[in-house]
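Predict the 3D structure for this chain.
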Amino acid sequence: MPKPGGIIFDIDHFAVHDGPGIRSVIYFKGCPLRCLWCHSPESQSKELEPVYIKSRCKSCNNCSGDDCLYEARRICGYHVSSSELLDEVLPQRAFYDSSGGGVTLSGGEPLMQPEFVAELLQKLRIKGMHTIIETSMMCDPKIIREIYPHVDSFYCDVKIIDPVKHKQYTGHDNNLILSNIELLSKLKDKTEIVLRIPLIPGYTDTPENITAIYHFALEKGLTEIHLLPYNTSAPAKYEWLSKTYPPGPLKQQNTQQLNELLSLAPNNLNVIIM
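Done. Predicted structure below.
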């Protein structure tokens, strides 16, 4: 019998890149996409799974799974209730209030656990917490309709506009994603919707793709876009799962490249490099 509550794999307190102010970021396990460059392969499966972090291993020959003294071997993911998560974040309340921060739900994909997320969001709302969901928007539209009143801001990933390339590199086309963003733009104040573009060298950071996303944002009346430079730490996590990083070695964009992408933005878009 499934355990009640949800499944997460990490909580990051004092985060400053996942919304305004100081935030606690809760990472939910499970994702419907399989992006070639996924930065968190341990988040893809909704199931608990073992990981081995070789760099932490002290060769003590006392392996005991999730009881490893050095956390080289552990189980990624754990069951948690909404009340337990509330107890986890409430002690940080003073930092949220003083900085204009709050709680961000990330993943993986939080909306793969819609009932649990809705329950948690309602409890956070009662406590007056500012909330953000970082989401791929790859979900049933009815989930958007049910959950949007309880979310202060949506941070929506838009990786590739071309549907054929999107399917090639993520496993799904983007028709549902883009239509859900359009739906959300009709339900929620447009200033509460931010598009985020993970800049993957050679895949998502081409001028053609970035320009197309800018135009999509304008068509839907959205004004804020975050450019997320490539994170070179991604490949290391694949070793935890005894996997190979599919794209191979990639270099983070330099300042000139980032400024060139910024220069493509129309004047009425607020584009920020994070």
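The longest helix spans residues 114-126.
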